[in-house]
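To: structure subgroup
Subject: Chain for Friday's discussion

All,

I'm putting the inputs and outputs inline so they're searchable in the archive.
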Amino acid sequence: MNAAAAQSVSFESPRHLAPEDQVRADYYGLLSALYYGAPDARLLQGIVVSAAPDGEGELARAWHALAEASAVMPAEAIAEEYQELFVGIGRPPVMLFGSFYMAGFMNEKPLAELRTELARLGFQRRDGAHETEDHLAALCDVMRTLITGGLASAPATVEEQKRFFATHLQPWYERCCDATTANEKANYYRKVAALARAFFAIEVQAFDMP
């Protein structure tokens, strides 16, 4: 990935990181922000002005499509789309929770196992948090923090990052992206799903390397 690809939407880390790790952290931070809630005008502009990843691969194509959509779609329209896709009335049309995809129901065993793992890693649930910890935005933020380290902790090892990703994200992210892409109400978030799919696929490949 190009180290400049996410520079305008960079999420501060408490210490210096290798450029490739900072880029990874920035992608996780961006995806966390986009899935936590609809982007405001400032974030949309940050995506527009950021440099695209090098090459002609899926990640570069997904970034270009997202940047083009960010340049022309009003924040209000994207906010309405987010509500229709991920909030709705009753059960949302597209679920963003790992337990739903891995167990078929909310608040099941995968969430309990995730909470145990988060406690082991030193994470605490934020006061006022409305979503459970297996929400895609929360998991992306955990991955970002594992890469950058917390204010009082060093970055996690690659093996720890790999274990967390393989256990809590890899088993279900493609089905979540598929559900978003297939929904007729998806427009902007179809581009977000394509970016997530392309980036996570790179993570899978990288973690599988010796």
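Points worth raising on Friday:
DSSP finds ten helices and no strands in the chain.
Residues 80 and 196 are 20 Å apart (CA to CA).

D.
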